[in-house]
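Hi V.,

You were right to ask for the full record rather than a summary. Here it is.
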Amino acid sequence: MKMLLEVRGLAVAYGHARVLNDVSLEVAEGETVTLIGANGAGKTSCLRAISGLTPQAGGTIRFAGENIEALTPRERLERGLVHVPEGKRLFPRMTVRENLGLGAFRRRDAEAVKRDMDAMMARFPILESRQRQAAGSLSGGEQQILAFARGLMARPKLLLVDEPTVGLSPIMVQTLSKTLREIHDDGVAVLLVEQNASMALRLATRGYLLETGTMVTSGDTQSLLGNDYVRKAYMGL
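Predicted structure:
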């Protein structure tokens, strides 16, 4: 497998508090990888450091063979590294369709953008029926779907997805899971942070377990699903 993302010895600190220590992970082209762990383990900080939203205190990050530590978040986005953060981060007074369009703000292929917009509406019928509504009028679950679809409008090479199922109904969770599988089938790589460890491990090919800022274990998802500690601590089994 050709590696798309390579993170080595990543460290992140907020003031004097270290929240990530010597974290290493990798994602191959077209691969879905998950990062699991409890709240406060440092999963979100890891994604934010990769996308450039949080400064790193050490380590290296390579994307598509390029060292990207000195690049701005916008420059990383332009290279195909797209971050869908936890908490939606929509423009509430703009319509659903306008928010989707903002996902493609760096693109200049107007016809292809329109086709992708139509594809998002077809993939998420709830967005099509609400496309002229203000994004802030959607339910929490609908806003999460919109944020996810907006990320896809950027045509990512790698999609960083942080807690996508928070606030979603079981039906919406199924829709999002199906979409993540389709994205994998389309050849887009995904690094998924998800509280639902069981779902995340079934969607991914490999996984990493992060605890209090340190990588505890990693491996293919079948081995992690069979790991007694993971099953007891994160799957309630």
